[in-house]
UniProtKB/TrEMBL annotation:
It holds the Pfam family FMN_red. One of its GO terms (molecular function) is oxidoreductase activity. GO terms for cellular component: cytosol. InterPro entries: Flavoprotein-like_sf (IPR029039), FMN_Rdtase-like_dom (IPR005025), NAD(P)H-dep_reductase (IPR050712). It comes from the Bacteria. This is NAD(P)H-dependent FMN reductase. Residues 4-142 form the NADPH-dependent FMN reductase-like domain.
């Protein structure tokens, strides 16, 4: 059975590199038979958080915010693709997800981190584990971490070089872990609904 997985990406930078990883993950999930969709915070372009989606009355939320709420609630699982900004969370991605809460609950999330240097965004990934768990998501135990992203993809967006080869080899286990939790959570929601 096909799964619907949203892949979130949040950089607003002019020469953003992480979009290569996000797009490749969407393609790689689709190649496995899942319905994967990129949610690019820059393209969605929500304002700085003032009111969450749940703070609006029925039909009062901005159209882009409302459409994304529907997509999140219909998804089976999520991938968060995050760079590391000064040792912490990407502000564009954090702002995007903070507009929502109940839509994410009782679904699994996986984290793919990256950096321009050798540490592959692991501090951002660690921070996201705490944030996503607090939002009601089960965070999978298999990370996907990419160092030196600037040289990890070729001109066609395919993994290249040592770091690209490493990420391509690591991806199947990352996706298998996420999809196992997606299947488990979907079956549990169907059997018993939300826990409270």
């Amino acid at each position: 059975m096909s799964r619907t997985i949203l892949v979130f990406y949040g950089s607003y930078r002019r020469d953003r590199q992480g979009i290569k990883l996000a797009r490749w993950i969407v393609e790689a999930l689709a190649a496995r038979g899942d319905r994967a969709e990129l949610v690019d915070a820059k393209a969605v372009d929500l304002p700085m958080l003032d009111r969450r989606h749940s703070d609006y009355g029925e039909g009062e939320a901005p159209a882009a915010m409302d459409a994304l709420a529907t997509a999140i609630a219909a998804a089976d699982g999520f991938v968060f693709v995050t760079g590391e900004y000064n040792g912490g969370l990407q502000p564009g991605l954090k702002n995007l997800v903070d507009h929502y809460l109940p839509q994410f609950a009782w679904r699994p999330a996986a984290i793919a981190s990256y950096s321009a240097g050798p540490f592959a965004g692991v501090r951002a990934a660690t921070a996201w584990r705490t944030t996503l768990g607090a939002m009601g998501m089960v965070v999978t135990s298999t990370p996907l971490s990419l160092a030196r992203i600037g040289s990890a993809f070729d001109a066609d967006g395919r993994p290249a070089g040592e770091d690209g080869t490493r990420i391509a080899k690591a991806f199947p286990r990352f996706a298998d872990d996420l999809c196992w939790w997606v299947n488990a959570a979907r079956a549990q929601r169907a059997a018993d609904g939300p826990p409270f």
